[in-house]
Amino acid sequence: MNPNLTFPRAGRFTCLRQSLAALLLSAISLPAFAQFVPGSGGSVPDIAPLVDAVDSIGGLLVYQTHRRNDTFGGGNHPELDVEFFPPSEFGASAYVLQRSFTGTDGWADVPFGMDVLRTPNDSYDNFSFEPDGNYYYRLRVEGGPRDGQVSNVVYAPVTTVETRFAGWGVDSSMFITGITYPWVGYGLTSSFDVRKLSDDSAVSGGLSLQWYRVHPRTGEMTEITGATSATYATTLDDVGGWNIICRATGDESTVGGFIQVTAGGGVMIPNLAFVSEFTAEGFRLNLHKSVPSLAPGDLKLTYYDEGTMMNVDVPIDTVTPIGGNASFRIGVTLPGGVDQFTLSNQSEVWKLGEEFEHHPGIPSMFIEFLTIDIEPDITVMQPEPKVLADNRGKINFGKVRLKKRSRAKVFTVRSDGGKTLAGLSVGTSGSASRDFLLTRLPVSTLASGDSATFKVTFKPRSTGTRKAKVQVRSNDPDESPFDINVTGKGK
Fold first, then answer.
1. In which region does residue 132 sit, left (phi positive, over 0), alpha (psi from -120 to 50) or beta (all else)?
2. In this structure, what are the phi and psi dihedrals at residue 351, rounded to the nearest 5 degrees?
3. Which of 23, 159, 316, 408 is the most exposed place for a label (fewest CB within 10 A)?
4. Are the beta carbons of 65 and 79 closer than 8 angstroms?
5. What is the structure's pLDDT at 5?
6. How confident is the model at residue 360 (pLDDT cuts 50, 70, 90)?
7. Do 383 and 357 share a structural domain?
8. Are 473 and 427 within one domain?
9. Residue 117: is its pLDDT beyond 80?
10. Do 362 and 383 sit in the same domain of this protein?
11. Boundary of a domain, candidates 324, 342, 367
């Protein structure tokens, strides 16, 4: 019985099941990729977390500045829309919007009727108003521990061009680059709709585009060099919690003002993982990429309480590196009577998970949670009773003349779990897959304790070393396909 347990989907959590002395997890129908040597994928970069600025707040952003038709009567007016974290984010009761001609001095509260422009409550997160000039803007905090502090500064000029931004969009479909959000390399395509105020007709051209990385806590914007087209693919430089924003700026002839839209949350690094040495007291977490550090507070273990209909946290006692930062012993005391748990990683830089092949010919997808199951369990032997390890070692067929056949080797597949081993089939993969000839398994299911055999023969199609994988597919959740490395030499 193989004690290795693989986890897919760790950002949306890992499911663990406890059955008697062992923890089990329901099988999934999609075949997981073979396990790996921990740390063989390199390392996750050590990226410092993005934190609040000292003695100030952040998050002020100009959403758009353009013109809009007057609601009553003829004519039009400039309009400025700004967004920000609500005052409650910083323990404040309200903000007042301030303006300055220079952005460095001469700050004054923005007038609004007989008063100033102030948030009406601590949950308010935007202002939309008519500016009367070209100003720099910032927020002033009222109440709470940050009373009197100010925010980051933004600039919003008034435009005279009679156009408005009627719509915008950011598409993050996996079909742009073949990679899904939020993983490094996923594609973003922006689109903007501009209309004339006179007849609401569409305006073509007149916009220039620029993508930015925006610090989510301070509002600091960093221009992404060369990212000036509608489509942008995220990179490692975007990792760590940055917001990605596309700004469309009018040429002040065809289109006036600008609009900038946020494309979503931070960009993450997928980190393949599997679990081994799993007991009621904890488990070993193995990572494809080593990480700078991992502490109990970085992981979250929970279970769903049917009685209260709430998730309950299970404290993680210890996280101990085992021979480097690619394997960790996770110590935890699991509550009795609970048969399902979820595990998530709290990092803004990387996530736990696995890759799955959904359909032949379509790129594999990274799934943000890990699946654990030791039933049903597949055992492969060659020769019986020698037990093979999934994707470990190799079976050598020796030297064989071209177009001749080696002696067949017999492989035995046995069901060692408590449930039926189903969906059984065998095949080959690799550059020399056609050099290894397989017989079919006589059955597609095996009851617990039953076994079946198939044969493999080496018939080289070329001289030199020939390598391939013989793959046994089944409903085993952590060893399907079960990979057998085979080799031989043509002469």
1. alpha
2. -135, 150
3. 408
4. yes
5. 32
6. low
7. no
8. yes
9. yes
10. no
11. 367
Residue 65: what are its φ and ψ, rounded to 5°? Answer: -135, 120
Residue pointed to by tokens 């000839």: 437
In the structure encoding, which two tokens stand for residue 6, read together? 């693989």
User: By the 8 A CB rule, do 386 and 395 touch?
Assistant: no
CA nearest to 445, candidates 420, 428, 467, 427: 420
Q: 165 in a domain, yes or no? A: no
435 φ/ψ angles, rounded to the nearest 5 degrees: -85, -10
For residues 399 and 344, what is the distance between their CA atoms, to the nearest angstrom? Answer: 49
Rounded alpha-carbon distances, angstroms, from residue 38 to 10, 32, 43, 104, 326: 17, 16, 10, 52, 5
DSSP strands (E only) in 113-206: 115-116, 126-129, 135-142, 154-156, 163-171, 187-196
pLDDT at 371 over 90: no
* Closest to 117 in 3D by CA, of 135, 92, 98, 134: 98
Examine the domain organization and report whether 385 and 478 are in the same domain. yes
The reply to whether 310 falls in a domain is: yes
| Shared domain check, 385 and 357 | no
Say how far apart CA 485 and CA 470 lie, in whole Å.
Answer: 6
Q: Two tokens at 203?
A: 């305006």
**Coil vs helix vs strand at 87:** helix
265: CB partners within 8 A, 6+ apart: 182, 243
Per mean pLDDT, which range of 209-218, 365-374, 401-410, 476-485 is the poorest? 365-374
Instruction: Mark whether 383 and 356 lie in a shared domain.
Output: no
User: What is the domain count for the chain?
Assistant: 2
What does pTM read for this prediction?
0.69
> Is 476 domain-assigned?
yes
Among candidate residues 322, 342, 367, the one where a domain is terminated? 367
Predicted local distance difference test score (pLDDT) of residue 289: 95
Give the residue among 311, 294, 293 at the shortest CA–CA distance from 302: 311
Query: Per-residue confidence at 72, pLDDT binned at 50, 70, 90?
Result: confident
> Strands 22-24, 243-250: parallel, antiparallel or unpaired by DSSP?
unpaired
SS3 of residue 238 by DSSP = helix
Average pLDDT rounded to a whole number, residues 407-418: 92
CB distance 258 to 246 below 8 Å: no
pLDDT of residue 323: 80
Domain that holds residue 415: 378-490
How do residues 262-300 score in pLDDT, each as one tens digit? 997 789 999 988 877 666 677 788 899 999 999 999 988
Rounded distance, CA 99 to CA 109, Å? 6
Q: Which residues pair with 81 in a beta bridge?
A: 64, 128
- 328-341 pLDDT tens trace: 998 988 776 665 67
